[in-house]
Amino acid sequence: MLTAVPVAGRPDFGISAVACRADHTRWSAPEVRTDYRVVLVRRGRFRRMSAGVPADIDAALAYVGHPGEEESFAHPTGGDLCTAISVTPKLWRSLAGDAAGPAAPTVYVDPRLDLAHRRLLAAARSGDVDFAVSEELLALLSTVIGRMAAGPTPLGGTSAGSDRRLVAAAREAIAEEHPTSNTLFSLAELLGVSPYRLSRAFPRELGVSVTRYRHRVRIGRALDRLEAGEDSLSALAADLGYADQAHLTRTMRQYLGRTPTALRHLLAPARPPGPSSARTPAIGGEFPFT
């Protein structure tokens, strides 16, 4: 079952919270859309097929679709919750130029892009669609388009397929917090490859090292907790495997330029008074499945 809840919209764009409750390994019937779109995962993961190439989509990997593209989906691990951004061709071209379509079907969501996604949702909670939401949306789209142009160019042939499968398996182990994902060597042993092979596959497939990828996942979990109002930074650091609160703070500063306390305030802005907040459906911290 697929449900879409409008979050914010104007003639040039629409933002929706899309929840899917599905559990099937087979690909869905092909779909063709007429819009440009960016889909970022809030929770869960799924698979997407476009141009005959499968991709495992989760909080660390967004997908970009363009008009006339044929796509299919599979949900082998259950439901997911996403933010779907639909953009008119005119707005997309104003940001990306006159290229016929995206340079790549997926975009790595590093901590800064993850934060841009969360800031967009926080702006939507304020109800100020014409300025706050629009400004955050343009910043996010500009980042996505820049990443599409600068992203990795996977190798063709068998090497690309083996890298894709290896990285997908490693990402799943990290996402599921498998005990062997705590070190590069134990993770490589779990996957039946050498540590060198695993460390080489990540930059070729995602454009980042496995070390940076693991940091990205842990920072995403930290942001989830901060967004929910976590008030014990020492407990947060311990739960996420950081040496102490200072280590967590240094890492957040390094990747996001802000302390955990600053990020907590940034992601939970106060709703302004007045009728303007009712003009657009508000968005909460989570969207329950229906």
Radius of gyration, taken over Cα atoms and rounded to an integer in Å = 19 Å
- Number of helices in the DSSP assignment: 10
Sheet with most strands: strand arrangement? 1-2-9-4-7-10
Quaternary organisation of the protein chains? single chain
- What would you call the structural class? alpha+beta
The largest β sheet comes out as:
6 strands, antiparallel
Query: What percentage of amino acids are in beta strands?
Result: 15-25%
Helix content: 40-55%
Q: What is the ordering of alpha helices and beta strands?
A: EEEEEEEEEHEHHHHHHHHH
Coarse morphology:
globular
Number of strands: 10
Provide mean pLDDT, rounded. 85
Description:
This protein is α+β, with helices and mostly antiparallel strands and 290 residues long. Helices cover 44% and strands 20% of the residues. The chain has helices spanning 89-96, 111-126, 129-150, 157-175, 184-191, 195-206, 210-227, 233-239, 245-256, 260-266, and strands at 2-10, 13-20, 31-32, 36-44, 46-50, 53-57, 61-65, 70-74, 80-87, 106-108. The strands form two sheets. A six-stranded antiparallel β-sheet has the order 1-2-9-4-7-10. Strands 3-8-5-6 form a four-stranded antiparallel β-sheet, with no helix packed on it. Helix 4 crosses helix 6 (195-206), helix 5 (184-191) packs across helix 6 and helix 7 (210-227) packs across helix 10. The longest helix has 22 residues, at 129-150. The protein is globular, with a radius of gyration of 19 Å. The chain starts with a strand and ends in a 24-residue tail after the last helix.
